[in-house]
Each structure stands twice: as structure tokens, then as C-alpha cells.
Amino acid sequence: MMRHFQKAFVLVTTLWILAILTIAASFFALWTQRTVALVQANQDDVEGELDMLSTQASLIYLLTTQRMTIAGLTLPKDETTEDPADEFNTKNSFWGEDSILSKGGELAVDDRPYLGYGKAYFALQDEAGLLGINLVSDPIIIRFLGLLGVDDDLQGPLIAKFKDYIDPDDLHRLNGAEAHHYEKRGLRPPSNHYLINPMEIKRIFDWADQPSLWENDRLGQLTNTVLGALPNFNTAPSLVLQAVFNMTPENAERMIQIRQSIPFYSLNTVNQIGGVNLNMDPVDLNFFPSYYLRLTLWYEGAQRMRQVHLQLTHRADGLKPWQVEYSLEQQLLPSYTQTPPSRTRSILF
Q1: Distance between CA atoms of residues 109 and 136, nearest Å
Q2: How far apart are CA 321 and CA 60, in angstroms?
Q3: In terms of CB atoms within 10 Å, which of 24, 82, 99, 203 comes out highest?
Q4: Are strands 223-224 and 131-132 parallel, antiparallel or unpaired?
Q5: For the ranges 87-101, 127-141, 290-304, which has the lowest average pLDDT?
Q6: Quick one: what percent of the chain has pLDDT higher than 90?
Q7: Are 49 and 42 in contact (CB under 8 A)?
Q8: Mean pLDDT of the chain
């Protein structure tokens, strides 16, 4: 009887040990699987970051050695035999002595996504194509806020608060806000100077409370704080064309489609295609990229992107030919992943 009990006890103990070992093995396998996945993800992140840096370096090289046309950044004729710097060094200025008209094959600067180096992607946006928020007129910013979904009765007060924020005095506009209003709400007082970057708009009284402005960072993506001229017809997004030139959505989209193959260079063509009757001083017309560019970088499988704001400084004595104004990292916007990326004809990518 005792011997039978001992055998049963040993059997039960063995089964318990086997069960514990099985559970331990399962936990170990799961831990190993997660560890391997984490290591793989970290490795992918490192590779993606390196590809982004390589892409950025290559683009800065091209931006500082190649000239611009109304279609964008030119690329070397034959990169296997020609150094881009050779062409640049023969010019009297960065923009070159050749025609500003398109030569074909340019790298677009209208925020179009491209394949970069390795698993990286990029997009270049001429900031002259964006809305210069610091110097925008009332009719334009009213249309702009309306296009972004702000209620009509809120547009005037928001504009008043914006002007109180950037003007140098402490005079309180009707429906505006000065330092004491910010203090009551526990906010930093207005800077009383022009905005440094579009993200600063969130500091303005009541502006952060408008969710439609910040959906997919639309306000930040469509504005600049460094230029005050009217937008570049060849690089402006649809909403900017609609807000500034009062185009319909259909006409704005048609302009964007046409300029991808035939860039605009005359007001008559803009009026015909855009369905508008603009009567502008030739000095105010803008068809050419500026020295200010926004470079957006991301890589395959990433959830975030980096935006680097560049200024080309070729004509500034004693400075390198480019400088980074600032860079921001944020969630990868669907506008970059929903559009199939194009391939450049440069062997650098």
C-alpha cells in the first residue's frame, strides 16, 4: 500500500514538474520571440535613420551644386562622368546663367514624395509655395481659416488675437488678447514679434482650441514664417491656391496636375487654367523657388517623420552654402504615405 502511494506521488510530482517546465519553456520562447522582434525593430530603426541621414546629405549636396528652374532642382546630365560642382562653379550665381525654364527631369519642390537612399523617402517643399502667415491680409486669412473648417463667427476673434500676439504694442484689439489675458489663463504672454515658426501659433490665445487647424498638422504644413510674398504658383498646395487666389478646389487641383508636366511662367496661363482673373503687378508674380526649403524625411515602416527647414546661403559671404534653421520630428502624416513615391533620375538614390 505504501509502495503504491509512493509511486502515485512520484507520478503526480513528475507531471507537475513537466507542466512547470512546459510553462517555463513557453514563457522563454515568448520572451525570446519578443526580444528578437525588439532587436530587429531597433536594427530597422538604425538602418532607417542612417538612410535618412544619407538622403539628407545627398540632397544638400545637390541643392548647393545644382541650379533651380521653375520646375524645381536640376540634376546632373550624366552623374557617371560629371561632377555637379563643375557646372555650379562655372556660374556667376547660384541660379546660373541658363534659362529658368524647365530643362526636364527636375526634382520637384512641391512636397512630392520621392524614393531616397535605401529604405528612406523624402519630399522637398519650397516654402515660397506656402502661406506667409506673418504678413497675410485679412481677406486671405479669413478664406484660409474657413477652408480649414473654422466657424465663421470665430474667424474674426482669432485674427484679432493673432495680430495682438505679433504686434509690438500692448493695445487691446476688439476680441483680441494681450498679456493680462494670457496671465489669467496661466499662459505665456505674447511675444509681440513675428512668429518664428508655424508651431508657435499654438501659443496664441484660443488658437490651440481649434481642432480642425491641427488635424494632420494642416496649419503647420501649409504656412511659413520666413517669407511675405505671394505664393509660388508652381509649388503652392491646393488649399493655399484656394485661399490666396480665391480658386475653386477643382481649378486648384487642375493647376497642380498641369504644372507637374508644364510649369507655369505667365499670369495669362494661370488665369486660364485657374479660372480666375488676377490683375497683379509683375513684381508680385512668383513662379520660381526660393532659398527656403522644407525637407521631409521618413523611412519604410516608420511611424514618425523629420522635417528639416533649410536656407540656402550661396550669396552670403563667410557662410557655408546652406544652414539648418530648425528641425522637428512628428507623427508621419498620411499625405506622404498615400501618394506613391516617384523615383529621381539621380544615381545618389
Answers
A1: 22
A2: 9
A3: 203
A4: parallel
A5: 87-101
A6: 71
A7: no
A8: 88
Read out DSSP for 26-61?
A: HHHHHHHHHHHHHHHHHHHHHHHHHHHHHHHHHHHH
CA max distance for the chain = 112
Helices (H), the chain: 2-65, 84-89, 138-147, 152-166, 179-184, 211-214, 218-222, 238-245, 249-259, 267-274, 334-337
pLDDT tens figures, 196-255: 999 999 999 999 999 999 999 999 999 999 998 899 999 999 999 999 999 999 999 999
Rounded Cα distance between 188 and 205, Å, is 10
3-state secondary structure of 179: helix
Would you say 71 and 106 are in contact if contact means Cβ atoms under 8 Å apart? yes
pLDDT tier at 89, thresholds 50, 70, 90: very low
216: number of Cβ within 10 Å: 11
Q: Which CA distances in Å does 4 have to 1, 8, 13, 84?
A: 5, 6, 14, 91
Give the DSSP H or E segment for 125.
strand 120-126
SS3 254: helix
Q: Provide the β-strand partners of residue 120.
A: 299
User: Would you state the pLDDT for residue 306?
Assistant: 98
Under a CB-based contact definition with an 8 Å cutoff, are residues 222 and 240 in contact?
A: yes
Q: What are the strands of the beta sheet with 120-126, ordered from one edge?
A: 114-115, 120-126, 292-299, 304-312, 322-331
What pTM, to 2 d.p., does this model score? 0.83
State the Cα–Cα distance between residues 127 and 104, nearest whole angstrom.
22
